[in-house]
Amino acid sequence: MTKKVLLVGESWVSSATHYKGFDQFGSVTFHLGAEPLVAALKGSEFDVDYMPAHEAVEKFPYTMDGLTSYDAIILSDIGANSLLLPPDVWLHGKPVANRLKLIREWTKKGGGLIMAGGYFSFQGIDGKARWRRTPVEEALPVTCLPYDDRLEVPEGFKAIVTGKSHPILSGIDGEWPLLLGANEVVAKDGAGIEVLATLPQDEGSHPLLVTGSHGKGRTVAWTSDIGPHWLPNSFVAWPGYATLWLNILRWAVKSI
């Protein structure tokens, strides 16, 4: 049975201003970064709607009905203000629905919520992603830090897999290819929170892959990227990349 996935974010731009004050850099030229994951999921049971960050500012649903058609939502490299400050609010001073609260309530009702890392994920570059103390953070299995949380590791690091019996890690054998960075977060305490992979000890043993729940929904935090630069081409080409993300989505929508 086909499952609907909304993949939001993964677009970046040059430094020319488009909407002054937004947490995403504004410009008339946008570059898209989710193609590796979209390609990995092609032909699977998941039907992906890819909504780049600059489009999500206005197009991300404003109602629960708009979200209920999706089984899973992936937020990747999109700051909280992109959903909090659409043009109606920022430019025209009009009230609109709080889309972060909608995501939290959608998850509570049974949706599968995933946040992947990046410069505008978790707290992000210079703290500008601003997911800390938001309704979305309430639903996630991790807590965001109050400052720039990027961990740049240009020499690369190998993931330390700690939850090998978890179904998300089924079919993934051997060492994982190098990763080049991640966001630093803190795994929440509580029943059902599982840290499945971390950075190595010499990089702080920070969480890399964490699962949890919120109400009837399942939640996942993957603190590295879904494509370059933190996820180098060797990781994208690794057969385990597609398996990992298929398993993450299957677990999030309760297929496994």
Provide an overview of this structure:
The protein is an alpha/beta fold and 256 residues long. Helix content is 24%, strand content 27%. It has nine helices and 14 strands. The strands form four sheets. An eight-stranded mixed beta sheet has the order 4-1-5-6-14-13-12-9, with helices on both faces. The chain is globular, with a radius of gyration of 17 Å.
**Chain oligomer state:** single chain
- How far from one another are the termini? 13 Å
Give the strand content: 25-35%
- The arrangement of helices and strands along the chain is EEEHEHHEHHHEHEEEEEEEEHH
Class from helix and strand fractions: alpha/beta
Shape: globular
- Average per-residue pLDDT, rounded, comes to 93
The major sheet is characterized as: 8 strands, mixed
In which range does the helix fraction lie? 10-25%
| Total number of helices | 9
Our Rg estimate from Cα atoms comes to: 17 Å
What spatial order of strands do you see in the largest sheet? 4-1-5-6-14-13-12-9
Stretches where pLDDT falls below 50 for ≥5 residues?
14-22, 24-30
Number of strands: 14
